[in-house]
Amino acid sequence: MSVAPSSPSETVAPAGERLVSVEVVTPSGVFWSGDARSVTVPSVSGTLGILPRHQPVAASLKAGRVRLRTPDHPTAEIRIGGGFLVVDDDDVTVLADDAAWVPAR
């Protein structure tokens, strides 16, 4: 299984900051699940940024990097080979063809 940044079990950060619940799923199962301040994905129409209280959306994704700003890490990146994104309330689901962590710089 992959090594992932840890995430709080609550949906609100200690300072009262609202977070989104993110799940990155590949054909082999859940690659990563946790909370994030923001998520950026490579949609076929351009880069799409997701913050808490985002409008519901479904989008096709192209190969590229998913950027996660988690409460305990400045930014974590996952390389995906394409897929789909679904946002509903503060739940973000990335259905990826494949996924791999991008090493920190």
Topology:
Elements: E1 20-26, E2 29-36, E3 38-43, E4 46-50, E5 57-70, E6 73-88, E7 91-96, E8 99-102
Parallel strand pairs: 1-7
Antiparallel strand pairs: 1-2, 3-4, 3-5, 5-6, 6-7, 6-8
How would you spell out the order of helices and strands? EEEEEEEE
Portion in strands? over 45%
The CATH homologous superfamily is named: F0F1 ATP synthase delta/epsilon subunit, N-terminal
Helix fraction, binned, reads: under 10%
Mean pLDDT, nearest integer?
88
Question: How many separate domains?
Answer: 1
The major beta sheet can be summarized as: 8 strands, mixed
What's the count of strands?
A: 8
Q: What is the CATH fold-level name? A: ATP Synthase, domain 1
Tell me the structural class.
mainly beta
The residue ranges in which pLDDT falls below 50 over 5 or more consecutive positions are 6-12
Q: Care to describe what's here?
A:
It is built from no helices and 8 strands. The protein has 105 residues and is mainly β. The protein has one domain: ATP Synthase, domain 1 (Sandwich), CATH 2.60.15.10. The protein is globular and about 35 Å long. The two termini are 22 Å apart. Residues 6-12 have low confidence and may be disordered. Keywords: ATP synthesis, Cell membrane, CF(1), Hydrogen ion transport, Ion transport, Membrane, Transport. Belongs to the ATPase epsilon chain family. Its main location: membrane. Produces ATP from ADP in the presence of a proton gradient across the membrane.
Quick overview of this protein structure:
With 105 residues, the protein is mainly β.
Output the keywords.
mainly beta; 8 strands; 0% helix
